[in-house]
Amino acid sequence: MRRFLCLGLLCCLLLGLVPLAAAQPEPRSSNTDTGHALLETLDADSYRDKGEAITALLQSDDERAREWLQALLDGRLQRTDDGRFVVVLDNSGRNWPVEDALTGEALGEMSRRDLDRIGINNALRNQLRSAIAVVDLYSPNVERRRSSADRLLGEVDEELFDTLTPLIEEAEDDYVRRRLAQAVAIYQTENGEMAGVEALSGSLHPRARVALNRAANGDDPVVADAARAALASVEQKLKINRGVETLYFGLSLGSVLVLAAIGLAITFGVMGVINMAHGELMMLGAYTTWMMQQLLPGQPGLALVLSIPAGFLVAALAGIAIERSVIQFLKGRPLETLLATFGISLILQQLVRTVISPLNRTVITPEWMSGSLVINDALSLTLNRMFVLGFALLVFVGLMLIMRRTRLGLEVRAVTQNRAMARSMGIRATRVDILTFALGSGVAGLAGVALSQLTNVGPNLGQNYIIDSFMVVVFGGVGNLWGTLVAGLSLGVINQILEPWAGAVLAKIIVLVFIILFIQKRPRGLFPQKGRAAEG
Amino acid sequence: MTTQYNRPLSRRFITSLLAAAVMGAGAQAVAQEDDPIKVGILHSLSGTMAISESTLKDTVEMLIEQQNEAGGLLGRQLEAVVVDPASNWPLFAERARELLAQEEVDVIFGNWTSVSRKAVLPVVEELNGLLFYPVQYEGEESSENVFYTGAAPNQQAIPAVDYLINEVGIERFALVGTDYVYPRTTNRILEAYLKDEHGVAEEDIMVNYTPFGHSDWQNIVSEIRRFGEEGKPTAVVSTINGDANVPFYRELANQGIDAADIPVIAFSVGEQELSGIDTGPLVGHLAAWNYFMSVDTDENYDFIDAWIDWSGDEEAVTNDPMEAHYIGFNMWAEAVRKAGTTDVDAIKDAIIGVTVPNLSGGYAAMMPNHHITKPVLIGEVQDNGQFDIVWQTPSTVAGDAWSDYLPGSRDLIADWRKPLACGNFNVVNGTCGGSTAAEEAEAALAE
């Protein structure tokens, strides 16, 4: 089949070239034909042949090479049944818009049945990325040059080594030069060359350490010793990095716990209502985020920002509905409240399953929240969690302000401390109840908006957090917002310190046992209520 | 009737009883001619497992509808009897009893988790039902009444690590899983296999378990990253279940680990799991299954089109357990045709050796150990949530009920053909009921 195609191609070349070349002053068609021949080699049976074809394509200096390589990398370079090469512009639906790979001419929509994808595997993907990176090193865009230099760390082979070595001197940008030198040094180290090991000494980059580790196990004892010394020299730095990382992990887990618990600290802690549907209110907030992203397609960031007030409102309204329909009738009967709200939580879960879908929904993380903040080569802090940490602190400060500085806060504190007295002073206790519960529920909605960036948005979202939330509130001291903050953050840090050596399952158990023992000793938690409110 | 127990049995009473019995049997025979064949569907439609199982219920309903449009079976129509075990393991057993005893269904398609299958097992065995189980599982089981149309470990896990070692050149393995029976058994088998067959050293294997629905992967991912920095090519073998996958992959992407550095090969992540996640950062990570939606055959495109039309969702995806139900359903239908009846014992005999087309252009055969033959495919995640197939076994692999790599289980075989008819026959001492061996295998697991 392939031979036949090649023959046919040859015929086309011979027959077609003459008149076309005569008709057109610019020999564009011959260019197209070499392009076709190049693409033909890409459609090989074995991945090895495809790899060679990619190298050939790079050396051909064809101006469309980068575009083709990118399309191949994305799986959009395909072939029609009649042997034409096309680039698929959008491969999401059942029918795909395509354009001719050689001429760039739009060919309308084609069914995926009529197209064969030119497949690649991880090894080829690596090769393609490096190939594109090498092309991009010459790009006028400095950001592109930098990211390609990053990309080439650990990807250098013999051929690239020859290409890159002269480029190091030529590079205008300082960062690019350093990175390229490092990339070359990594290659040398992997080959057991002393020069590479010396250049990598003090480097924290994981790829550099992989290379040094390899050299340390190499045959040449002198180089191996030098590699071991180079590794040992950064050991102390790495330990500090690791400590910072663990602390960050802990704070970030803690911030999630705080967010989940702080709404509960109001409804349970201040009002004394055991609300088992608290998790489902968080779920509503997360679904609001999804809904906003559906309403504003293509603008996930804006949708996320708008979901903050929307999530608060939706959850607060749901909270009011729950309070009016169930909780107000069960005042002072904690056991019945617990059972009734547990029932509500099941109803809400199944409602979402039936109305929306039992499947998880995709909430997109906006560009500015993905990836990580690079501190140094070995330490980078993930951005989405940093945002959540900041958001948790903001919510906490906001709540503190409401409770301490507003009339509502004053009334809430008055009603919870002495309901009868507050009423006789003219405070409408029922209204305060509604508003407090709405506030707590709304904050749960905010937690849901934040969680949509970290975990699954699905009907089970709430269930996973309800136990942790109660744990944090009880540990921190019922009725105390500061307690919730300190308890959440410290439980997060303790958990993350324990996890590496105890494993995730055991770490969780140890934390639970610790809390049980702590509550035995101090039944009122970290920050017990003092004074008359405590007897309340 | 109950009042009659007090009287001495008269001859007249016995004859009338007999007559009634004969008439009843006759009536039943007549009823069989007209009544639809009942197909029980035992998948959770609520609770945590609804995410995975509800599509399987829809799949079986679609297959039943297609069969009815094609004229039913034995001239009778098929009728789906759907119950909801609500992701509650003991409830699975109750619902199975309800299906078999009250509804008197002829066959059951159902279950997802191993623990739910273990709950249903005694019920189907006691009431002599038929259960088709469509999900990859840990093996170490073969029941006379259960047909395992999902993959056994030798049809998924073992070929997957072979691929990593031979094609990718991996030398270090992080076995990461959710803490329950399937990951623990699979990892146990993999550890033994890697050490014995490939000579992988103890320090080159890292094992980590997390609770169900684990969402904070920061520490584990950074541990994996460090594990991969020690000089040898490293891969993660993931048996992480369900919901926990999304935060896991997110954390991988956020910490900048891509498939080129440390590829992750997953046994529980399919098209459906990927549809709830932004797949851009996952491109290149691997999954091992026996079917992918991207399989390029006409059978598969027909199935996908039918599924999209049936579900009315242009974005609907197909996955491996759906194909398993497709195969299982067709095998059962073929066995019913072959036996000429829906009688359970007749089907059990007839179905062994039945061969039906699968969706990847080959055939699946029911083996005497109630497992089927399957090709093993390795796919790489694409940015559109699909898998690009990069490798597949040259031929189909027969499912092995008892692993060859675990002590105790090694000597067992299952063969439900007469005269052996045994699910755990010990070839060393030649006895059926190798329950001691099964216990040994479990004891080995518990170590």
UniProtKB/TrEMBL annotation, chain A:
Membrane-related topology note: Multi-pass membrane protein
Gene Ontology CC terms, in alphabetical order: plasma membrane
InterPro entries, per database record: ABC_transp_permease, ABC_UrtB_bac, ARM-like, BCAA_transport_permease
Signal sequence coordinates: 1-23
Presence of the UniProt keyword Repressor in the record: no
Subcellular location, record wording: Cell inner membrane
GO biological process: amino acid transport
An MF annotation (GO) of this entry: transmembrane transporter activity
Similarity field: Belongs to the binding-protein-dependent transport system permease family. LivHM subfamily.
Official protein name in the record: Amino acid/amide ABC transporter membrane protein 1 (HAAT family)
Automatic annotation (TrEMBL), chain B:
Any one Pfam family match given in the protein's UniProt record, by short name: Peripla_BP_5
UniProt entry tagged with the keyword Nucleus: no
Keywords annotated in UniProt: Signal
Residues in the signal sequence: 1-31
Tagged with keyword Signal: yes
Membrane-spanning intervals of the chain: none
NCBIfam families: urea_ABC_UrtA (TIGR03407)
PANTHER family assigned: ALIPHATIC AMIDASE EXPRESSION-REGULATING PROTEIN, PTHR47628
Protein name, UniProt field: Amino acid/amide ABC transporter substrate-binding protein (HAAT family)
Organism of derivation: Vreelandella songnenensis
